[in-house]
Every structure is written in structure tokens, then in C-alpha cells.
Amino acid sequence: MREPTGSYPSVRVQGDGRQVVSQAGSVLLVETVRKAGLDTATSEALGPWRKPRAVHDPGKALLDVALAVALGGDCLADVGMLRAEPAVFGPVASDPTVSRLLDSLAASGEKALRAIRSARAEARERVWRTAGRAAPDTGGMVTVDLDGVLVIAHSDKEDAAPTWKRTYGHHPLMGFVDHGPGGTGEPVAALLRPGNAGSVRHEVAQFEWLHQLEVRLMSKV
């Protein structure tokens, strides 16, 4: 069914009814990661966080968390849905291993963020270069749509607060690259904020964030 290439297995689709897997739709996400080179870029960027004789690559473990979120997960333990399908996702780290990795990255602060952003920038540049005239930066201009997004928290979390919709959670400010007739959008930056933050919490703070976003876009982060 597969031959391992890169961080994830190469899945071949067949219609004989054998070797059926759940989460088959996630193959599109895995293939996007592979084609964009995000797996190899993230693995290289997070190399300094890989401990000697470690079994699991930090880059893949972080991407596994991202895939679990994309599939509807809302906590680290939800990587278990990936672990149940090794034919699609390959070896997946245990919950304690994933938790220790995130603790390590969080302890590194800005250093870890720069590493992750550099991997994203490398993948983004590759995708935009492949897109050619259909890329968002065609014509020398990039349109960014800013919007606040409510993220519900079902228990007390850091910075969680009552929202203006009488729910409880977070209200991050997101930046999306809008391109194409439908304005499909591509997430490029996020400013984490508590649930009670307004559309513009602090005008100066937002201006500084926009400046950071501009710098990131110039380097395709």
C-alpha cells in the first residue's frame, strides 16, 4: 500500500476494498505537506530540539499536532487519531513525547518561533514559486484580510475569558492572504488575544503587529 518517503508514507489508492483506512480525507493534507516541502523544512528547522537517540523527529511530531487540529482535535491527546492509522501518518509519537516537545519549544520562546517561521517561509516560497502567475504576490502586491476569530474553550485556559457572544474562550486576530476571485485566503499570522478583546484591542499594539506582519510577508513567513 505504501513506501515511506519523507516524514509521511506515500499512500496509493486502490478500489479492491482491502486495507481500508479511516481519515482518508487527510491524505490531501499529508500530500500538501509533502509537495510544499513543509515536512523536510520543519524537520531541519527543529533539528536542534532533537535529543540524542530520539526515535521521533520533532518536526514531524509538531506537524502531527497540526494535522490533528485540522481533523477536529482540540487537545494534544487527539494525535491518537493519527496514531491509529500508521498507513496514512506513519509512526506517531506518544502523548508524553508530544507534550515534552511542546514544553521544550515553549521554554525556548522566540528561538523556537523563529525556527518554525523559517520552515513556513521556506515552504511558502516554494508553493508561491510553483504557483507562478497564480501566486498571491503576482503584480507586486499582497492583499491581507484581518479578522477576529472566536475560539471556544470548554475549560479554564490561559487568557481565556468571556466573549462578546456570551461564550468563553479566546479572540485571536488573524491575518489571511486573500487572492483569487473567491478570496480563498491563506493564514499568514495570528495575534493571540483573550476572549474579551475587541476588534481592535489597542490601536498602537495592532499597528506594531501589522508592521511585524509586513516584515513577515516580505520574507514570505
Overall tally of structural domains? 2
Rg for CA atoms: 19 Å
What is the overall pLDDT average?
A: 82
Give helix and strand order, one letter per element, not per position: EEHHHHHHHEEEEEEH
Q: State the end-to-end CA separation.
A: 35 Å
In helices, the fraction of residues equals: 40-55%
Tell me what portion of residues adopts beta-strand conformation: 5-15%
Uncertain spans: none
Specify the number of helices.
Answer: 8
In quaternary terms, these chains amount to single chain
Number of strands: 8
Structural class designation: alpha+beta
The main sheet orders its strands as: 3-7-8
Largest sheet: 3 strands, antiparallel
Shape: globular
Characterization of this structure:
The protein is of the alpha+beta class. The chain has two domains: about 1-110, no CATH class; about 135-220, no CATH class. The protein has eight helices and eight strands. The protein has helices at about 25-35, 40-45, 60-70, 80-85, 85-90, 95-110, 110-130, 205-220, and strands at about 1-5, 10, 145-150, 150, 160, 170, 175, 185-190. Strands 3-7-8 form a three-stranded antiparallel beta sheet, covered by helices on one side. Strands 4-6-5 form a three-stranded antiparallel beta sheet, with no helix packed on it. A hairpin with a 2-residue loop joins β1 and β2. α2 crosses α3 (about 60-70). The protein is globular and about 50 Å long. The two termini are about 35 Å apart. The model has no long low-confidence stretch (mean pLDDT about 80).
Spell out the key features of this protein.
221 residues; alpha+beta; 8 strands; 41% helix; globular
